[in-house]
């Protein structure tokens, strides 16, 4: 190997040794979609729960504007290595649902409008999960409270949310290593 080919050989060696960062798949959910379909942009699923039951670490579910009369339970986990399970409203606060219960690790929920009811009480409940991110959601009029990080949850980030006219709290934390930053809490009952 001559001096002019050494940098190229070094670059190829470093590329082969570098960890792979494969991108996950993107799925779509839309009112009137079909949960038996592929979840593609032109054949989206009809419920956010279908996405929660299906996507894999590193995948993203884009939720199109609309009202989803469901409280989504996310019990599957993403991965610190291959990526979060990401649930994202296509437009900021355009996708509306009753709430989320998150027990899986490495989950991101962002951009939703959430309004709980008397049966569900809390908008977003992070129960014992680690590595969860709740970002840029508008959580309002939830009878008990807006976002509850509880029961052994750790390394959770609650950032950039608007928590408006909720019951006893905007954000309630009983976990460890929780970042609560840049949220606006207003008119708590």
Q: What features would you describe in this structure?
A:
By secondary structure, the protein is mostly beta strands. Helices cover 10% and strands 41% of the residues. α2 links the parallel β1 (26-29) and β2 (60-63).
Helix-strand layout with pairing:
Elements lengths: L5 H12 L8 E4 L18 H7 L5 E4 L2 E9 L10 E5 L5 E8 L4 E4 L2 E2 L7 E6 L5 E3 L2 E3 L4 E6 L3 E6 L2 E3 L4 E5 L2 E6 L2 E3 L3
- Overall shape: globular
Judged by helices, strands and strand pairing, the structural class is mainly beta
Number of strands: 16
What is the percent of helical residues? 10-25%
Mean residue pLDDT:
91
Described by strand count, sense and barrel closure, the largest sheet is: 9 strands, parallel
Residue fraction in strands: 35-45%
Give the terminus-to-terminus CA distance.
74 Å
Radius of gyration, in Å, reads 19 Å
Query: Which regions are unreliable across 5 or more consecutive residues at pLDDT < 50?
Result: 10-22
- DSSP helical segment count: 2
Order of helices and strands: HEHEEEEEEEEEEEEEEE
Q: How would you classify the quaternary structure?
A: single chain
